[in-house]
Amino acid sequence: MNSTNERESFSERLQQALKNAHYSPDSPTRLAREFNIRFEGRPITVHAARKWLVGEAIPTQEKLRMIAQWLGVPADWLRFGGAEHAGAGSEGNGAAGARFESADVKLIADLQRLDEHHRQLAREFIRMLVRMNHAKAEQK
């Protein structure tokens, strides 16, 4: 794949991940603002965000990892693709080889938008459901 195609493909995946996380894929200003809120390094410009969205550039690996974490997608999928949808990779999901459905990716994005207190409540609730499911499975 040539570099132009790589940039365009990255742009398509970034736009899809933004949509799945309920962000507009058409606003470089919003992308730059949301990115800079989360990134501890040097902030990006609106121009840089626009270049990512229109397929003129690909972010550095460090920036790409942060975008992937923020949007709840695997960094390798965001950079290279290779799966049907944004949640099909295994990086960062806690279980090697596990695959997320699109609804799962959206749920992760929603969780990331909660304040820390509510995220903790959601984690505790999910852990409780997992324990209940595990106990039920052991009874069979």
Written account of the structure:
- The structure is a single chain.
- With 140 residues, the chain is mainly alpha-helical.
- The protein is 64% helix and 0% strand.
- The chain is built from 7 helices and no strands.
- The chain has helices spanning 3-20, 28-38, 46-54, 61-71, 75-80, 102-112, 116-139.
- The protein is elongated and about 55 Å long.
List keywords for this structure.
434 Repressor (Amino-terminal Domain); mainly alpha; 7 helices; 140 residues; 0% strand
Morphology: elongated
Summed up, the helix count is: 7
Count of the domains: 1
Overall pLDDT, averaged?
83
**CATH homology superfamily:** lambda repressor-like DNA-binding domains
Question: What is the percentage of strand-forming residues?
Answer: under 5%
Do you know the CATH architecture?
A: Orthogonal Bundle
Helix content: 55-70%
Main pleated-sheet profile: none
Query: So what's the CATH class?
Result: Mainly Alpha
CATH topology: 434 Repressor (Amino-terminal Domain)
Give helix and strand order, one letter per element, not per position. Answer: HHHHHHH
